[in-house]
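Exercise: predict the fold of this chain.
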Amino acid sequence: MIGFGTVINVISIIFGGSIGLLLKHNLKNKYKQVMIQGVGLTTIVVGMSGSIQGLTESNDKFIFLVIILSIVIGGILGVFIKIEERLNKFGDNLQSKLIHLGDFSKGFVTASIIFCVGAMAIMGSMNDGMTGDYSILTTKAIIDAITAMILASTFGVGVVFSFIPVLLYQGLITVTAHYIGEFVIDSVKNQMTIIGNILIIGIGLDLLEIKKIKIVDMLPAVCIPIIYYLFMNLF
């Protein structure tokens, strides 16, 4: 079912946020840390399993070349147009304007930024729309549930209502990807999925604080296989 991943994500935010409201300020840092580490490990496993599955199902002898070129070119493009830097500035500007607002608005906007402005939201929604695979969004749902729990214990009920922009944002990406996916052949979809899962591994490494990787800047890599396919067919 197309869009089911976003539905799971929305439910996870409501659930995690509700638990956070019950806990109030009693969620200790040592518990937050172990939860994030657990999610980090799981995220790496999800990324690795998705990548391996895609590679084993591919009959393209140039698959590794396509993946390497896509990630390198996509990363260069992302750094050139400063995707991560611009998104961080956007988030910082919004949060700086929340100083004089109440906890509801602060919690709502802060949570919305965290849940929407990220690689997993985009890649997961694209995967769900193009292939019906919502495993990435399921992993994101677990991360968001824990994050919502932590934020709601501090900011209150506004965090719970952040499910609304998540539903609209991810839903729009999913629907758009679904219709675009009708014009993309399966081998290209598979290449895009593999690249997306490799970037998911990077998110897991970041969560575990092993290595900070510019995942957001690498997001254009997911679309490079389409350009490669069009180029090869033209020549």
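Check your answer against the key: DSSP finds ten helices and no strands in the chain.
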